[in-house]
Design goal:
Layout lengths: L6 E4 L3 H12 L4 E4 L11 E4 L2 E4 L10 H13 L2 E4 L3 E5 L2 E4 L6 E4 L5 H7 L4 E2 L4 E6 L4 E5 L4 E5 L1 E4 L3 H7 L4 H8 L3 E11 L9 E4 L4 E6 L11 E7 L1 H6 L5 H16 L8 E12 L8 E3 L4 E3 L9 H19 L1
The protein binds flavin-adenine dinucleotide and 1,4-dihydronicotinamide adenine dinucleotide (NAI).
Flavin-adenine dinucleotide binds next to α1, β14, β18 and α8.
């Protein structure tokens, strides 16, 4: 059965787009909204003087059979490529090679390519922050931060991080309560670009006992700009929480220092640097919810926080929300 009006989806991260694709494929009309200027959310890439940078998700793994299959399709279409970095581990002050057999994927030529391709020609309003989701007699309407209303919609799918979802789920207090119970932790991300390549073999490094928890060499990813030797450094959740309001220049200085200590070669001042704070980077724990649904009301929520807090979890949650919604339409 087709819904009586389009289905609104708030959020064009991978969860919202996974839901949108599944609903569209089932013959439903969807309308997407995002507060940002483009799609991707935490899989977005930032354009900079040092080329496009993946400041959020660095790579992803595929373990669930359904996700493995879809990633293979994305690979065949050229949206993703395998990343085989020379991996290291930094622990107890020591840097050591840490190779493994895990298959890791990245968007090609940048992380945002995936959601850009998934969005295709689906209708979307960007730069549109939804502040309220309310139900009239038969249909749903949305209000944005500019005071404009959008609708009518038959159903609403909220595909934002949990703290942003709980406010939008007010019409379904049980769902709002579940979303409000999910704590999400921040991550400070810093990009450091060097004019001459650093003399190290490291291309990715899992870090412990440091303000940093992850380091990646951008040029080692397939299809990336090689103008400069650009690194993305992620602070740990604990350090990010402790330094949440630190000015960006100071964050760059601290993480540049910590990076120089662990990387094991001379590190000059960067030719270019930037910092980005992800306030809701990852859920503090994982859940087995799949997606949240109040099917009688027609209000739904999905996102990485409903499952594993990873790209795969977000995609699976989007599939689950679409399945739940379509089941109720039959
Ligand atoms: P999001 O990507 O957050 O999408 C939500 C969207 O909703 C956003 O586009 C946002 O703009 C929009 N939105 C929010 N509120 C509103 C509103 N009121 N109105 C309109 N739009 C709104 N995962 C991995 O698998 N591997 C990794 O290596 C990895 N590294 C990471 C590193 C960092 C620093 C971060 C931040 C995340 C990382 N992740 C990683 C996690 C991964 O990025 C997420 O699990 C996944 O991208 C979440 O997708 P999502 O669609 O659930 O949410
Ligand atoms: P994965 O299997 O590569 O990594 C999972 C974890 O296993 C790593 O965090 C690391 O601790 C360990 N590990 C894996 N390979 C290793 C190796 N060769 N040497 C040493 N340790 C190794 O990928 P998966 O399971 O898909 O996880 C996604 C990654 O995304 C994780 O690293 C996670 O920390 C990161 N992430 C970061 C977020 C942030 O906000 N910074 C948010 C969500 C995920």
């Amino acid at each position: 059965m087709t819904a009586t009006a389009p289905i609104a989806i708030i959020g064009t991260g991978i969860a919202g787009l996974s839901a949108a694709q599944a609903l569209h494929a089932a013959g439903q009309q969807v309308q997407l909204f995002d507060k940002s200027r483009g799609s991707g959310g935490r899989m977005a890439s930032k354009r900079s003087d040092a080329g496009a940078l993946d400041l959020g998700a660095q790579y992803f793994t595929a373990r669930d059979r359904r996700f493995v299959e879809v990633v293979q399709q994305w690979q065949a279409r050229g949206w993703v490529a395998e990343w085989t970095p020379s991996l290291y581990h930094f622990k107890d002050g020591r840097l050591s090679a840490s190779p493994d057999e895990q298959v890791r994927w990245v968007g090609s030529p940048r992380m945002s390519a995936i959601t850009r391709a998934m969005l295709g020609a689906l209708p979307v309003h960007f730069s549109c922050r939804i502040t309220e989701v309310f139900r009239g007699e038969q249909h749903w309407s949305l209000q944005d931060a500019e005071g404009q209303s959008h609708g009518p919609f038959s159903h609403v799918v909220i595909a934002t991080p949990a703290p942003q979802a709980s406010a939008l789920l007010a019409a379904a207090p049980k769902l709002a309560g579940a979303a409000a119970s999910v704590a999400m932790e921040p991550t400070w991300a810093v990009a450091l670009a060097f004019a001459a390549p650093l003399e190290t073999k490291v291309e990715g490094c899992f870090v412990q006992d440091s303000p940093i928890d992850w380091v990646a060499r951008n040029r080692s990813k397939p299809g990336r700009d090689r103008l400069m030797d650009t690194w993305v450094v992620h602070a740990s959740s604990a350090w990010s929480k402790q330094h949440l309001d630190m000015p960006k220049e100071a964050v760059i200085e601290h993480l540049h220092g910590a990076f120089a200590e662990l990387i094991g070669c001379a590190v000059p001042a960067p030719a270019f640097s930037l910092a980005h704070r992800w306030l809701y980077a990852r859920p503090a724990s994982s859940h087995q919810w799949g997606a949240l649904a109040d099917a009688d009301l027609g209000l739904y929520a999905c996102g990485d926080w409903c499952l594993s807090g990873r790209v795969e979890g977000a995609w699976l949650s989007g599939q689950d929300v679409a399945r739940k919604l379509l089941e109720h339409l039959q």
